[in-house]
Design goal:
Elements (H helix, E strand, L loop, with lengths): L5 H11 L10 H14 L7 E7 L5 E7 L2 E3 L2 E7 L3 H8 L2 E8 L4 E11 L2 H8 L4 H9 L9 H14 L11 E6 L3 E6 L7 E7 L5 E6 L2
Antiparallel strand pairs: 1-2, 1-5, 3-4, 4-7, 5-6, 6-7, 6-8, 8-9, 9-10
Helix pairs in contact: 5-6
């Protein structure tokens, strides 16, 4: 592949396909290869993924959030701990993440339990956010009913006045979750709907079983 133009790259990836020999034994490293290619191809917000959660009654919900950190421990996103997603994670920690890199005819699904990260980790990330985003975290009662946008803007103005001086502190109701992966699926689109799909399943010894799935 000698081009990072998304349309050309998509055709090249679909023609080449995905074989078992292409895959890294470690799914996190395999994710990194695909993720870095999505960044190099200048896809809009390549770190955006659909997060699916299920409430205590088994009703699903989905929303787009942003991946902020990942390593061998898991995949981290941030949110308000009183939000709908947080309440559903408290009721049922099992979640699914889907990275839809449609422009490259690729997607990656990751499933596993979500758990809160430490306050220290959340503080470290919060300090890197733009000041407006920090104040926004204080202003928004995420997922709650509000009368109008004016209410939200008034709360933002109030918080901006409150934190006029110095650093904006981390709200005690805001922080990160780490999804600890138990399954990865790498999907490469192919002609005639004969797509290539490979699944990694975590094994009791910590290793990974890799299997090809029918499209």
């Amino acid at each position: 592949m000698n081009s990072l133009d998304p349309e050309t790259l998509r055709r090249e990836l679909m023609e080449r396909g995905l074989s078992r020999a292409d895959l890294d034994p470690d799914p996190v490293r395999q994710f990194q290869v695909w993720y870095e290619l999505a960044i190099a191809a200048a896809l809009p917000e390549p770190n955006a993924f659909t997060l699916c959660t299920v409430d205590a009654e088994g009703r699903p919900s989905a929303r787009t959030v942003l991946l902020k950190l990942y390593d061998e421990r898991g995949f981290v996103f941030f949110t308000n701990y009183t939000s709908r997603k947080a309440r559903e994670i408290a009721a049922n920690p099992g979640v699914a993440m889907l990275f839809p890199w449609v422009a490259l005819a690729r997607q990656v699904q990751i499933t596993g339990p979500a758990e809160r990260i430490s306050m220290t980790e959340s503080m470290r990330y919060f300090a890197t956010r733009p000041r407006g985003s920090q104040i926004g975290a204080w202003a928004s009662p995420q997922s709650q009913v509000i009368r109008s946008r004016a209410v939200l803007e008034a709360k933002f103005a109030e918080m901006a006045r409150r934190f006029t001086q110095g650093e904006v502190p981390l709200p005690d109701f805001w922080g990160g979750y780490r999804v600890v992966p138990e399954m990865f699926e790498f999907w490469q689109g192919r002609e005639n709907r004969l797509h290539d799909r490979f699944r990694y399943l975590r094994q009791p010894d910590g290793g990974w079983l890799i299997e090809r799935l029918a499209p």
